[in-house]
Amino acid sequence: MALRGNRKPMDSKLGILLLNLGGPERLEDVYSFLYNLFADPDLLRLPVPPLQKPLAALIAASRSPTTRENYAAIGGGSPLRRITEEQAQALTAALAVRDIPAQTYVAMRYWHPFTEEALNQIEADGIETLVILPLYPQFSISTTGSSLNRLEQLWRQRPRLQGVTKIVIRSWHDAPGYLQAMAESIERRITTFHEPDAAHIFFSAHGVPVKYVTQYGDPYQAEIENCVDGIMNLLRRRYQRYNAHTLAYQSRVGPVEWLRPYTEDAIASIARRGIGDLVVVPISFVSEHIETLQEIDMEYRELAEAAGIHRFERVPALNTDPAFIEALADLVSQALAPEPPQASPMAIAA
Amino acid sequence: MALRGNRKPMDSKLGILLLNLGGPERLEDVYSFLYNLFADPDLLRLPVPPLQKPLAALIAASRSPTTRENYAAIGGGSPLRRITEEQAQALTAALAVRDIPAQTYVAMRYWHPFTEEALNQIEADGIETLVILPLYPQFSISTTGSSLNRLEQLWRQRPRLQGVTKIVIRSWHDAPGYLQAMAESIERRITTFHEPDAAHIFFSAHGVPVKYVTQYGDPYQAEIENCVDGIMNLLRRRYQRYNAHTLAYQSRVGPVEWLRPYTEDAIASIARRGIGDLVVVPISFVSEHIETLQEIDMEYRELAEAAGIHRFERVPALNTDPAFIEALADLVSQALAPEPPQASPMAIAA
User: Which residues from chain B sit within 8 angstroms of residue A171, using beta carbons?
Assistant: First the structure.
């Protein structure tokens, strides 16, 4: 997918385009945001394509009241735009330190700033090399795949972009800097427990329908599982943390089967084991948003406490964690100078 | 469940009763064995109790041809009786070394020697204290529960047994000696790999229907998961093995949902992750039988190899592994002298 031109990218005017999902900034945006979400066939594959839009309108209307309540509970809107713009600024600064001057842009899939808005700005700024960096560590057809499809579709329509060198980073679930930032963040939270060794590490990833993996070839589950094992490996080797862990999938909607275990079932199962202390790690999100602030912190916490889990501590999303921003800067640097990476003490042995 | 009389058990004539499932010794036993299995409402709960026996006959008849083929593939019968009798002899010897003279008996749930046969012998030998030791490390309603129900039913009908002190060991999924025997056995197999750190440890437990856990309160899943985490903890702390692992459930039959992930799905998922080396650990069985020798070694191996896994090495069942027999002797000793156990270097820290 990485398209590289003939000239050396480092000499040209460089842009970094961050891709993310987007979220409604105000309660009155909720319906339109949900409509955009469900109208995307990469996210929700309806059996009769011409019905995608009317059905999206119907589903969006039926889910709006609850979704509005959920956004109201976290302050009336999604913080995703603000956090993503902070990440963009921090990344620009980290690249500047490495003598890589770059402009950063944000393209959200389902809300402002939309991909069109980002591309307008990229054209206006005369960017010559553009690194596309999805803020999804693990590739899924429904997230990175959808954003890249949308980008490709709009890109083809703009003659001025045809001369731009485009470098796509498809996924970075195994990037050493990212795994290390996650391990550090978990370690910081574990040390706050009275008995750190007894805390059970509970990874919660966003789910996808099983058929994405088994029928459409989505690498998402494989990348999530490899990512979790990579983080656990660092925790063991670097911090001598031998805690047990569980991986579950959250946020299921609709009637079809999604990846299992579902987070709610896994919480019940852990409670039955007599485990009382959970360190909850959102694994497919790098920014706080509704699935962390409302779904994990409120809904799943309530379930857990009702089931007898007395300590439920969530690890924050990475947001602008300096180790994470450095990891993103590493990804950009490597994409621009794609020599084989040096053997590094950060590399995971197993 | 442990019933203890007033006299000191160590002074009385001691018996140890080992409980297990049983298996057909010859191909012509297969139908009757399957009938016994499916006629047990603890193992298969049919919605209309009076139909249990005729339906059991039907299911047994329909499954017999395949089951006979499977037993034919492992030499024409189950080795379970022979192995269990060897375990009984080894346990007698291990207890004798500890100055605990005891007779051992075997009661199989679905084939010879049946519980009746064991009780006849226990009466004839004049046993005064009987320790009941199920050869299932983890309790399930469908295994240990069924055997204990059957034993209780027959026990009540025998006046001569009413004076016998009965000590029941319900489960021992967290017994340090057992966990250590398992960890040692896995460690021995891992060291045979060219790259031991890259081997993925794949625990396969016998499955049960989900409703056993969620509706009937079966502790099976919790005990399996705690057991796996206990073994992994020992591997990390004692052998510095930081390998990733997976737990899956095998042997599903019938239309209802069983515990997940199913072993066949988990193998496919691991293959998609690009993992090539599997150390397969049967976790709910302590003796070789059809589910290890045929289902894992033949069926699951074939699936795994077709999916691209190039090394599939099973850890043997514990059988008469000396560390395992010592662990059983520990269980018996502790049941007879149930003081609080001393802090031991074998204890698991987390």
Answer: none
Closest residue of B to A217, CA-based?
Answer: B272
Phi, psi (deg, nearest 5) at residue B277:
-120, 120
The stretch A266-275 carries a mean pLDDT of 97
Measure B208 CA to nearest chain A CA, in Å.
Answer: 14
Mean pLDDT (chain B) is 93
For residues B100-126, average pLDDT: 98
| A273 Cβ under 8 Å from any chain B Cβ | yes
- Name the pTM for this structure: 0.91
* Interface contact A244, partner B, CB < 8 A: yes
- Phi and psi (nearest 5°) for B130? -125, 120
Residue A5 is given by DSSP the state -
Residue A342 confidence (pLDDT): 54
May I ask the CATH class of domain B176-314? alpha beta
pLDDT digits (tens, 9 = 90+) for B22-58: 999 999 999 999 999 999 999 988 888 899 999 999 9
Q: How far is residue A259 from each of residues A60, A263, A297, measured CA to CA in Å?
A: 23, 10, 21
CA B19 remoteness from chain centre: 9
The whole-angstrom distance between A85's CA and the closest CA on chain B is 33
Report which of A210, A205, A208, A243 is spatially closest to residue A225, judged by C-alpha positions.
A205
Identical fold between A2-23+78-172+321-336 and A176-314:
yes
Say if residue B1's pLDDT is above 80.
Answer: no
Average the pLDDT over A233-243 and give the result.
97
Amino acid sitting at position A144: T
Confidence (pLDDT) at A330: 98
Tell me the β-bridge partners of B167: B131
Rounded to the nearest angstrom, the minimum Cα separation between B43 and chain A is 22
Residue B176 CB neighbour total at 10 angstroms = 18
Which two three-digit tokens encode residue A64?
């709006």
- CA A160 vs CA A16, A114, A163, A168, A267: distances in Å: 17, 19, 7, 19, 52
pLDDT of residue A346: 42
Strand B14-20 to strand B200-206: parallel, antiparallel, or no bridges (unpaired)?
unpaired
- Sorted by where each begins, the domain ranges of chain B are 2-23+78-172+321-336, 176-314
- Conformational region of residue A251, where left means phi above 0, alpha means psi within -120 to 50, and beta covers everything else: left
Q: Can you name the residues that pair with A103 across neighbouring β-strands?
A: A15
B-chain residues within 8 Å CB-CB of A232? 244
pLDDT of residue B7: 42
**A84-120 confidence digits (pLDDT tens):** 999 999 999 999 999 999 999 999 999 999 999 999 9
List chain A residues with CB under 8 Å of B261: 260
B179's enclosing H/E stretch is: helix B176-190
Q: List helix spans (H) across B109-169.
A: 115-124, 146-156
Q: Are A164 and A124 in contact (CB under 8 A)?
A: no
Q: List the single range of A261-270, A299-308, B332-341 with lowest mean pLDDT.
A: B332-341
Read off the pLDDT of residues B258-283 as tens digits, 9 standing for 90 and up. 999 999 999 999 999 999 999 999 99
Is the Cβ of A349 closer than 8 Å to some Cβ of chain B?
yes
ipTM of the complex: 0.88
Find which of B216, B242, B258, B277 to mutate to test the A interface (most A CBs within 10 Å of its CB).
Answer: B242
Q: What is the pLDDT of residue B346?
A: 42
DSSP H or E run through B73: helix B52-73
Question: Class for domain A2-23+78-172+321-336, per CATH?
Answer: alpha beta
Q: Pseudo-torsion of CA A111, A112, A116, A119, nearest 10°? A: -130
Percent of chain B with pLDDT over 90: 89
